[in-house]
Amino acid sequence: MPELPEVETVVAALRAHLPGKRVTGVAVRCEKLRRPIPVKALQNLADKTISEVRRRAKYLLIDLNDGPTLVIHLGMTGTLRLAANGESAGRHDHLDLQLDNGECLRFRDPRKFGLVMVVKPNEQGEIKELGELAPEPLNKDFTADYFYHLSRKRTTPVKNFIMDQRRVVGVGNIYASETLFRARIRPTIAVGKLGKKRCRQLVNVIKEVLTEAIATGGTTISDFYGVDGSEGAFARELQVYGRTGKPCVACHQPIEKLTLGGRSTFYCPQCQKK
DNA sequence: CTGAGCACCTGAGGGC
DNA sequence: TGCCCTCAGGTGCTCA
Fold it and tell me: Does at least one atom of strand C sit less than 7 Å from the CB of A223?
């Protein structure tokens, strides 16, 4: 479900709400996610106060005083919302983090591809458990130069490359197709074949598209909702994703679909010649 | 090392 | 109504 803009939308909402709240307890109804939910570590969060809500790549980070950080990844279908403590839980409401104001942060995830961890960040706030993660696309260190040098001699399709979290984080299947359309680059082209100029263009478009998507509250296809249940408005802006056979917004050629890395990929054969 | 394929899990929607 | 198939915004494993 969520790519960087969707996670950022959730983070922004939680940031306005959670800091200063004290955790009073947890309720775990189903432990079996991608990895088992660490029940004991979560219980140890009781009586700690939330200090900050952050994002790294597609991970939500909830920092507590005394050091521990609650890490949540939403997988494909995860959602977080604020519920009243004691409000009846649905079948896929796996975890509640109960708060001292009578509310709880409720994690739901039908497909169970999500992840919940409790970790200890280092002095810089970095979390080694997240593995090798590329720069944030909206940061200054994600540059055309970086992209160009990293991609030399690589034969992988550019779409696979920009979805690889070790190259750039936060771009998922929707925004990969969308950014390549806006940059007029064919998703299948070997990334190593892109010249400096096109690398620069792609980097700029990635920044642009993600920024716009954040500004509109993310993309709701079927199951992304904000913390308050609202839908993201970026779905209206999608130019190729899910538009197989429909006319290209630029040239009116039908949008085509193919599979790359096992994922549906949408592009305009006319506008994205190479 | 790279790239490809598949597994993880449940639900929604289409065709019959 | 029901069955069966395909597909779904992510990641991480195995294999060649």
Answer: yes
DSSP element (H, E) containing A213: helix A196-215
**Angle (deg, nearest 10), helices A144-151 and A196-215:** 120
pTM over 0.85: yes
Q: So which residues of A are the catalytic ones? A: 2-3, 58, 263
Same domain assignment for residues A175 and A238: yes
Asked if residue A257 belongs to a domain, the reply is yes
Whether the CB-CB separation of A35 and A106 falls below 8 Å is answered with no
Task: Summarize pLDDT for A29-80 with one digit per residue, the tens.
Answer: 999 999 999 999 999 999 999 999 999 999 999 999 988 999 999 999 999 9
A109 touches strand C (CB under 7 A): no
Residue A111 vs residue A274, higher pLDDT:
A111
CATH number of the domain to which A74 belongs? 3.20.190.10
* pLDDT over 90 (residue A223): no
CA gap A264, A248 in Å, rounded: 17
In a domain, A219, yes or no: yes
Q: Which residue is nearest to nucleotide C7 (CA to C1')?
A: A264
> Which domain range does residue A59 map to?
4-131
Q: Tell me the CA–C1' distance in angstroms for A150 and B1.
A: 14
Measured in angstroms, what separates residue A214's CA from nucleotide C11's C1'? 23
C1’ B5 / CA A156, Å: 15
Cα dist from A11 to A55, A59, A60, A67, A98, whole Å: 7, 10, 7, 19, 18
> Is strand C in 7 Å reach of the CB of A113?
yes
